[in-house]
Amino acid sequence: MMEEIQTSESSSDRINTRAPKIVGNHHGVLIRKATKTYGTGKKTCDVLQGLDMTVKRGSIYGLLGASGCGKTTLLSCLVGRRGLNSGEILVLGHEPGSVHSGVPGPNVGYMPQELALFGNFTIKETLFFFGGIYNLKATFINSQCEFLSKLLDLPPCDRYVKTLSGGQQRRVSFAVALFHEPELLILDEPTVGVDPVLRHSIWNHLVQQSVEHGRTVIVTTHYIEEARQAHTIGMMRSGRLLVEDSPENLLRKFQLSSLEDVFVQFCLRDDGRHSTEQLSLTGSNTANCDSIETVAPGILSRERDVNANSDNPSCHSETASSRQSNDIKNDGLNSKESINFKSIWPCPHRLAVLIRKNYLMSFRNIGLFLVTFLIPIFQSAVANITLGNEPTNLRMAIVNDEIDSGVGRVCTNATDCEYSMLSCRYLRYVSDNIIQVPYENVSDGIEAGRRGHVWGVVHFGRNFTEEFEMREWAVELENIIGRRINVYMDSSNQQVAAFIQKWLVDAYGDFVKDFLRSCGHNPESGAMPLTFLDPVYGRKDTPFTEFMAPGLMIAIIYSAALLLIAATLVVEKEQGLLDRSLAAGVQMSEILISNLTSQFTTMVGQTALIFLGMLLIFKVPCNGNLALAVLITLLQGIVGMCFGLLIAVVCDNMNGVIFLTAANFLPVFIMGGILWPIEGLSFYLRNAVYCLPSTSAIEALRSVMTRGWGLEKAVVYGGVLVSLAWISGLLVLCLIVLRFRKNFS
Ligand SMILES: Nc1ncnc2c1ncn2[C@@H]1O[C@H](COP(=O)(O)OP(=O)(O)OP(=O)(O)O)[C@@H](O)[C@H]1O
Fold first, then answer.
1. Residue with the nearest Cα to atom 19 of ligand 1?
2. 437 lies in the same domain as 579
3. Cys-Cys crosslink for 542: which of 315, 457, 470, 538, Cβ 3.0 to 4.6 Å?
């Protein structure tokens, strides 16, 4: 069946841009003196310790070893996802990552331990995604889909991956590694969670691939006995290969019936530092890494016993380096291959496939898609509804000693020029936002304030009106005190206290003017000789929302862009999707660009909605050029995306993303002048906050929206330039971190 398909889908139908076939090398994989370390300082973990490995081209190599001995690390080095600290690797005759290797790329099929599948894709879409990365033709992908469905007993190809059982998903993952018919298959535990019948058929297929098609297969498994079907078995322990031989030879030499027993024998010898013939076949090395806690089923307990019997688990010195040096020369390990700059340049067809994937993922998750747009609208609505409004229903205790009903001193609604109960007349001018609650005396009012029943006490003396009447000639201190309105405030809430204070002062001005008018005087004669005329910019009563709106809009767009891109990439990282894509030949720069592109369209939509809401629903004016305001906001969104990219390349899990996003938000926006003017900061801090990514842009947007300024003003073009500088700086930083992490991860 397989042959039929391969014949019918011959070369012209298949891969358009496969890497050139490697000729003249009889090794599928050759590794010499590989060392790999994780961490630094005291936390250093030596995972590979001078490991040597030889995999014949066209053979199946079963890599066995306890959990944590470094198998996955070794495989990730083979596919070019990690670099060695020292030592050398040749894959299909070339260094992984070199121009002609096709690894990472179409020459390798990599099945990581994680599922590494897009849950919202169908099986067919999954194959088409990876097929697109390899630039395969649709007819070939379709035929492979049909063939592998039968071979691996896959559900119908239009089933969504997330709806499949665990075992079915693993088979799809296996199919993804196989379907483009790579030269080299690297399979990290492909048979986990697969039933025995299917496991049998998978191994048969692997044998067929190697025997009939000359493909090289490296497979790790915890089911040691199934590895009997491999041509060579490598038994790995603590970052070294204990032995490398055919299963038959191993069983014969030890006169044992199971490979599991052979493995235990090797572990025992390793721990006992016995130099055996078998051990001398490979170059074994030095120190042990960390403790290996779990091992494969069946050998777990025995491995533990072995370790328990050993006083000193460190390992042997090497033996077979002379044999290897010949191999190294023959295989050209010493000649470093250059990494062509062109090969890391983004490739248009892969970019297109990645961008399409991003859009498809967004549309498939319709809930998330809607939330992506609704959250910014919701946030701006909440901010507009809750911030900047005047507080209402504020209870104030009124202690009016003028009132004495026993002698007829009661409040009236008098509006004429009569000096009578002026305290009551003043209170009529106090804003309705204040609820006036009469109290008998000042101490009761203050006690009510202490209990939180009122926001303060307004006290009028018994002779308030009389002293007010005498004001023209009242120069004695007691007259002045007598006409005072004494206010005791609960100033625990600075905003509320400030409002009440303003309303009481305003009420006094209105009261005096009205009284003077009723007495035939010019009302302005009682006004303060300080007048605020029409403002240069803004309005006399500019609401707080207008001050806050520019910062708020930037904050919403910036943080949404940051979180979305960081979360998307880190989730792909966590699920192994990123590793699989990179092993398929996708460049990290392509992943970054494709994410920037697809997230940009989302951000444009979010920006449009926020501007519509702010301008049309919440009536925030934009006195300047609207296009300029949108540009400044979008640039800040891109800054947020670049920050998100940086967070994604630094963090390996969502906890890190959440932590860094939260840590980033507060300083950027609170110090950036979104809620409080930065003029309120100390001199040094005020200059320092301009180094934050959003401070200048918020000022620029505020100047455009409220002052109507344009790009000719330094504040405005400064905001644009600072955003551009941050974008470039963050992208460069991303690339540096990526290079650093590739070399040191
Ligand atoms: N990114 C990393 N940073 C630090 N240590 C790591 C990292 N990845 C793996 N390790 C450590 O390296 C050692 C080898 O891990 P690796 O995943 O290669 O083992 P393995 O043989 O594949 O195990 P298993 O069979 O359980 O998958 C382990 O001790 C692991 O904790």
1. 68
2. no
3. 538
Q: What is the C-alpha separation between 27 and 545, in angstroms, rounded?
A: 70
Cα 570 from Cα 579, distance rounded (Å): 11
Locate 476 and state its tokens. 């004695």
575: CA distance to ligand 1 center in Å? 16
Domain that holds residue 487: 394-526
Q: Distance, CA 84 to ligand 1 centroid (Å)?
A: 14
Does residue 103 share a domain with residue 138?
A: yes
What's the pLDDT band for 481 if we cut at 50, 70, 90?
A: low
Q: Do 469 and 577 belong to one domain? A: no
Give the best-scoring range by mean pLDDT among 296-300, 336-340, 571-575: 571-575
Q: Is 171 in the pocket of ligand 1 (CB under 6 A)?
A: no
Structure tokens at 579: 């590793």
- Domain membership of residue 504 (yes or no) is yes
What does the pLDDT read at residue 596? 93
Q: Is 65 in the pocket of ligand 1 (CB under 6 A)?
A: yes
At 516-560, the pLDDT tens digits run 999 998 888 777 778 888 888 887 778 888 889 999 999 999 999
Residues 408 and 329 in one domain: no
Question: According to the 3-state scheme, what is the secondary structure of 219-255?
Answer: EECCCHHHHHHCCEEEEEECCEEEEEECHHHHHHHHC
**Cα separation, 171 vs 151, whole angstroms:** 10
Residues 130 and 198 both lie in one domain: yes
Pairing of strands 456-460, 27-38: unpaired
Looking at the fold, whether 636 and 508 belong to one and the same domain comes out as: no
Which CATH number is 419's domain given?
A: 3.40.190
Is the CB of 456 within 6 Å of ligand 1? no
Put simply, whether the predicted model's pTM sits higher than 0.90 gets the answer no
Give the single-character DSSP code of 476.
S
Answer whether 192 contacts ligand 1 (Cβ < 6 A). Answer: no
Ligand 1 pocket residue status of 68, Cβ below 6 Å = yes
Q: How many of the other CB atoms lie within 10 Å of CB of 310?
A: 15
By most ligand atoms within 8 Å of CB, the mutation choice from 35, 36, 38, 573 for ligand 1 is: 38
User: Is residue 363 domain-shared with residue 325, that is, in the same domain?
Assistant: no
Question: Is the same domain home to 426 and 521?
Answer: yes
309 contact partners, CB below 8 Å, separation of at least 6: 268, 271
Which of 36, 63, 73 has most ligand 1 atoms within 8 Å of its beta carbon, as the pocket-test mutant?
A: 73
